[in-house]
Amino acid sequence: MAARRLPPLLPSPKQIRPQEGSFPLRGSVPIVLEEGADDACFDAARALQDAIRDRRDLELPIEGHARSEDLLPRIALSHRGQAAGLEGDRYRLEVGRESVVAVGDGASGLRYAIETLIQLIGASGPVPGCSIEDAPDFALRGVMLDVSRGKVPTAETLHSIVDRCVELKLNALMLYTEHTFRFRRHPEIGAAASPLEAETLRELDRYAAERHVQLIPSLQSLGHMDHILALPAYRELAESEMGWTICPTDPAAIDLLRDLYDEYLPNFRSRLFNANCDEPADLGAGRSAARSQRLGPGGLYLEHVDCLRALAGAHGKRTMIWGDVVHVHPERIPEIDRSLILLDWWYEAPFDYERVKRFADAGIDFAVCPGTSTWNSLFPRVENAELNITRWAEAGRKHRAMGLLVTDWGDWGHYNLQGNSWLAYAWSAQESWSGTPSDTRSFDRAFSARLFGDTSGRAARLYRALGAIHEPGFGVFNGSALQYLFFDDLERSYFVARCTPRALHRCERALERVRSQIDGAREAFTREFLTWEELSYAADASLFAVRKGRAGLRYNDWRSHPEDAKAGERKTLARELTDLARQQKDLGRRLERLWLARSRPSNFELTKRRLQRSRQALAKAARALEANRPPPPLPPVEPLALSEVANQVRHSLRPK
Prior knowledge:
Elements: E1 15-23, E2 31-34, H1 39-56, E3 62-65, E4 74-79, H2 85-89, E5 91-95, E6 99-104, H3 107-120, E7 127-134, E8 140-146, H4 155-167, E9 172-176, H5 198-210, E10 214-216, H6 226-229, H7 251-264, E11 272-274, H8 289-295, H9 299-313, E12 318-322, H10 324-328, E13 341-345, H11 357-361, E14 365-369, H12 382-398, E15 403-408, H13 422-434, H14 440-452, H15 458-466, H16 481-487, H17 501-519, H18 529-560, H19 567-598, H20 604-627, H21 642-653
Parallel strand pairs: 2-3, 2-4, 4-6, 8-9, 8-15, 9-10, 11-12, 12-13, 13-14, 14-15
Antiparallel strand pairs: 1-7, 5-6, 5-7
Helix pairs in contact: 1-3, 4-5, 7-9, 12-13, 14-15, 16-18, 17-18, 18-19, 19-20
């Protein structure tokens, strides 16, 4: 019998050979564990049993046998020991006419063999014969999820993200935390942000460990501490009036960090800990200026990192930090303690990824950290994300990085919805396991089948189509212009004024096509209907942004030349703006429902505030049109500046 065609797999194995024949899957086939099999073997068997029940409605028994050669047909599972990292993740899978044999070098390798076998099992028919030898490129492969800048996931969502990691053969999950943990000794911290509890994290840590996913603790320890430093009890610990960076020369600040570490770190079994320490914008510019001058450029930073290493070391943790400040002071690299792990990042596709060579040359362990390009966006910039992930992975392989962590941030409120990140997670899983896929169409089919049960690849194509529409006439660094347009205050029109009619028209036509395709693809998301709803919302919000831009340009024309507008035109535009305000209110309700489907209430009021300001500006503009009282014309449009982009967002976050 000729070899059956194998389905595309995610991540694609290093070596795979089709074999003649196939394995007949029937309810009488036992899943066999060898004598002395441990809990990891049984857990892998249960995962396979559950998947077969779900896909085939078959209940395969799990049995232990001292010998199984005469048990045919059978599925035999085993692993060789307790190897970890690359060694433990290696596996072999053989599918023949009479048996399936899955062997892992370690317990994790066996589980990854099962995850591959599950993908080979279709909705019907025998399992195609094949021989697979497989192992990953990186020992550490995972996701860093921001749980601080607006959105705190529910325990159920966090467990589901661990399950997603297992499906994709990712073995690390890091929850980026600034203040969203319930500290008993410091209960004011995060009190209004639905903080995570120690019990929740301990349970998640156990759940993840059972599935070979390492839950790595992460707690900001220098910059990005504005949430804590804004509280009256901690305001005096700031480096400067900016209230962004904790003062590293203040003993009370170090005492606070010690308290936080003592409560937070014992909840994690991982030996790693990310102290972050990125972007300390005012470090050395305030209370610690004299100490900074004595230590020289970069010296104060290294001194603080050494202090954090000692604090974390008291809990048996090895410290990680982001690499941005280290790159600013490359001359200090020889002074870095070699127990430190540097996490190098940048999120726009054009970049010098080769800069990690300086870490490799210095003998410092490091990981590469691309991004999902979801934040500051209504929907991720898919092409940018995939290029960014691929180029970081290439640099990481070349210079022997210990791992790849894809980062999923939540800048300015984290209104980017979780399901919209799945494609970037999958692309990073592929890159960190076996490199860039040789055929994007096969990857798309594997992604769609693995996550949604859609063997056509249609789900992935929708991600790509929607993720390609972002520019209404201008672009923004590290974000999508449509998102800024969505929240723009029409009275100020900082972003509306930068649109062009032709680009808006092009975006609208493309979005209408994609929106229709999403409507027609509900059945492709039978396993993840919530993700379909999240894609639908993102398409509708993007369409709203474009239509707001088109109406906004006409409104601003009237402001500049009110004498040119006829009464009928004014009334028509006023009705359009009123309707847009109503639409944005409806979109806000949808967003809140989708937010709460996966997350705690946390800081949704920040996004509500931005939505309300946008709606109020639309309604005010409509009233001005109806009364024929134009506000002053806009000032001339100047080149878009990143500092002003941030100012506009801060303005939108202020209460009206």
